[in-house]
Amino acid sequence: MKKLIVATLLLGSGTLLSAQKTTKVPAHYKPVKSEMYRKGWIDFNKNGVKDIYEDPAATLDDRIENLLQQMTLEEKTCQMVTLYGYKRVLKDDLPTPEWKQMLWKDGIGAIDEHLNGFQQWGLPPSDNENVWPASRHAWALNEVQRFFVEDTRLGIPVDFTNEGIRGVESYKATNFPTQLGLGHTWNRELIRQVGLITGREARMLGYTNVYAPILDVGRDQRWGRYEEVYGESPYLVAELGIEMVRGLQHNHQVAATAKHFAAYSNNKGAREGMSRVDPQMSPREVENIHIYPFKRVIRETGLLGIMSSYNDYDGIPVQGSYYWLTTRLRQEMGFRGYVVSDSDAVEYLYTKHNTAKDMKEAVRQSVEAGLNVRCTFRSPDSFVLPLRELVKEGGLSEEVINDRVRDILRVKFLIGLFDSPYQTDLAGADNEVEKAANEAVALQASRESVVLLKNADNTLPLNIDKIKKIAVCGPNADEEGYALTHYGPLAVEVTTVLEGIREKAQGKAEVLYTKGCDLVDAHWPESEIIEYPLTPDEQAEIDRAAANARQADVAVVVLGGGQRTCGENKSRTSLDLPGHQLKLLQAVQATGKPVVLVLINGRPLSVNWADKFVPAILEAWYPGSKGGTAVADILFGDYNPGGKLTVTFPKTVGQIPFNFPCKPASQIDGGKNPGADGNMSRINGALYPFGYGLSYTTFEYSDLEISPKVITPDQKATVRLKVTNTGKRAGDEVVQLYTRDILSSITTYEKNLAGFERIRLKPGETKEVTFTLDRKHLELLNADMKWIVEPGEFAIMAGASSEDIRLNGILTVEDYRSRLHALESQKPVSPVTASTDMENATNVLDGKISTVWQGNKGDYITFALKNGAKVDEVSIAFKRDNKLPAEFEIQLSGGGGQFLTVYSGTVSQYEQLIPYSFKGTTASDLRIVLNDDRVGIAEVVLKE
């Protein structure tokens, strides 16, 4: 493994972080101005009185309003901006005397990425002494917080924000696979654990707001940020996003800020101009695909943060849109947190979109639209000063400012900043961050994210006991940079695939390694459209890889992408393997030795040649710092892969757009017969479809049951099925449930993901899997853009992928009135009626002496008899609390409502069936009439 000392050598000094040479921080943090810190409350405004906003027992709204009333315009506007942290905008790591003359002397809304170690793209992590260890970092953030609490007039704490889509961004922290990898686990509980750990480590480091999860839905596989989405299904993105937020915001340990709202992830041709302009989507697609996850996550989790995107939609920049940021986000979805702008989203209104003439107008449009906090890599003055001018000139009302500040304060109160502004357990930070239990979850996530794409002739798993030599090559074989990019931990130990294989082979097999080729060639990306010949050095390195393969029993080729080919602002024009990677793979395959291809990358790749000629393929995405261990565990059979694709693999970019879900027949075109005499004009079908993934074992599906089979739009249906492991290895199966509206008023998707469950089964084991369907799984956006569930039949499909459907059924939806009428018509006529206490009349026929119908003198109970019945005896069990004799009559009716008495008697025995005989006659009804008060009938048995 590469040790931490190796990472620190990248800093250029060749030494460990200077923080390790400083004075040891205390185990427990104590602020300086002790007179402010009272028992059970903090005197933020230093007036010696417990104001309402300082009182933890006061209501949230009262605390907000009390503080807002005390704030000046200067203090309010300072809350509406982010100050980027050390070496981004802020030049100081700790407060200085000059801060009392800076803009933030009146407070600040948030400080972003302060001392998290990130400096700039392409630079090594910061070597500032306060970056690490965790206790020192927490102490430093406390010191910054202390300035705002102790040295500003009202003492409003700052919100420390930071990135966290694959672990909190810090010099070190628990390092998870990138979000695309996490999506491929299909494991709700695991994602909640990832959120819980990320939020807990963030708070222990001093951060209070984490920019995660990303709720964008993948549509164009060329897009640079595909590595950051959970997948292509809005349902799956919503389900995993809900769990991530619940984990992050557990007990309000931090606020979660989801991004990027709205319609962000489908730019024309995946082009990434910084304003992400011109998304190519219809309004209905925006709602079905891109708004759906945000709507559900906000409503189901109480999400506290939203990052507004800097794209336009249909000519309207989202950042300046009241419709998107207020009407939809707050009024319709019920969002109650604060909106923070994505970098330069405000500035783009005048520099890119040209809908504002200058910065001042851009500020006005953004704040009016609903923006709470401007966040970008610029001085906060550039936003706050024009904002103050607008209020003083009448361009914005102060009430609008008040509304925006209320949201900011609400979040700060909810996450406990006014009750516990400091992270006081400094020693606890060292114990929590990267602790063994957290690392175990990270390894689980890495293992579960890997997808087995091909395994011809059971090439995998490899038997280490039968292998003498293993050849390893490829630009990603000994690469660790994919685990150390922005938006996550920066300098953790990383186990590469080569290191993972060597660890498994130690003492058993020899590992031969050469790189084989670089990730890209000198002419890339032009080499994607023009083939350049190999240089002598490039050819020699490929030859070395092939020579190693000839000596070995098996070759593992580790290819894919990396920071050069994928990421923010790194969209591609091709989905083929970049550089000379395919030539390397072909050379190794030509040796005739078994070849296993391992892909490490941030987007689907069109590995058509590999799929046709290479026997085994593993897709590992960016598998986190534990990725090499996870891949080796799978290669050698210590872990059975169970990940399934949440994205579609097109065969070529010429098929894009090519996604799940899709409209009927939209993914295929043209004939099916190739060649000169055929009729096929284009490549059809996916290389690998949504939901696809193999295992080292097999699974059988059976016993699909839908109950009830007919529901109304507001009822729920339960779908049950059984899955059996029919192989010889324990393994995971991701059971997938799909629906299709068979007949609808508008065109709907061919299949909609409506449920999924990752289950683990031992060989021969069977488990029942249960799904619940309700209106969110069945509704459509009709011609009037209203969400409704249309009556009709829905196909219910369960299977191992979107194309591997194993079980089918039908669920019928009827409107309420039709359903009620159907039920009434099917309901049998009750054989018993009563003059009183009708709801208990059927108790006399339930076979239980303990249940009764009770009446008083003159009350009766009537039984409808079978047509043409002749009755001459009835057995009755009476019940009376006082046990006194009671008189009764038995009457018969032949129709027309006239009853004649056929028996008169006195009850002397109670709570047992006593037969009463009389002269029989043909009758339609039999009636028992009470002639005393408070008499009960427990049971009646008619002899017909």
Please tell me about this protein's structure.
With 944 residues, this protein is of the alpha/beta class. It has 22 helices and 36 strands. The chain has a 7-stranded parallel beta sheet. Strand 13, helix 16 (497-505) and strand 14 (510-513) form a beta-alpha-beta unit. The longest helix has 19 residues, at 283-301. The relative contact order is 0.08. Residues 1-21 have low confidence and may be disordered. GO terms for molecular function: hydrolase activity. It comes from Bacteroides clarus YIT 12056. This is Glycosyl hydrolase family 3 protein. It holds the Pfam family Glyco_hydro_3. Belongs to the glycosyl hydrolase 3 family.
Secondary structure blueprint with pairings:
Blueprint: H1 4-9, E1 37-38, E2 41-42, H2 60-70, H3 73-78, E3 82-84, E4 110-112, H4 134-150, E5 159-163, H5 179-183, H6 188-205, E6 209-211, H7 234-248, E7 255-261, H8 283-301, E8 305-308, E9 312-313, E10 316-317, H9 322-332, E11 338-341, H10 345-351, H11 359-369, H12 381-393, H13 398-414, H14 426-432, H15 436-449, E12 451-455, E13 469-473, H16 497-505, E14 510-513, H17 536-551, E15 554-560, H18 581-589, E16 595-600, H19 608-613, E17 616-619, H20 627-635, E18 699-707, E19 710-711, E20 717-725, E21 731-741, E22 752-761, E23 766-773, H21 775-778, E24 780-781, E25 787-788, E26 792-799, E27 805-813, H22 816-826, E28 832-834, E29 853-855, E30 860-864, E31 870-879, E32 886-893, E33 899-907, E34 914-922, E35 925-930, E36 935-943
Parallel strand pairs: 3-4, 4-5, 5-6, 6-7, 7-8, 8-11, 13-14, 13-15, 15-16, 16-17, 19-27
Antiparallel strand pairs: 1-2, 9-10, 12-17, 18-20, 20-23, 21-22, 21-26, 24-25, 26-27, 28-30, 29-36, 30-35, 31-34, 31-36, 32-33, 32-35
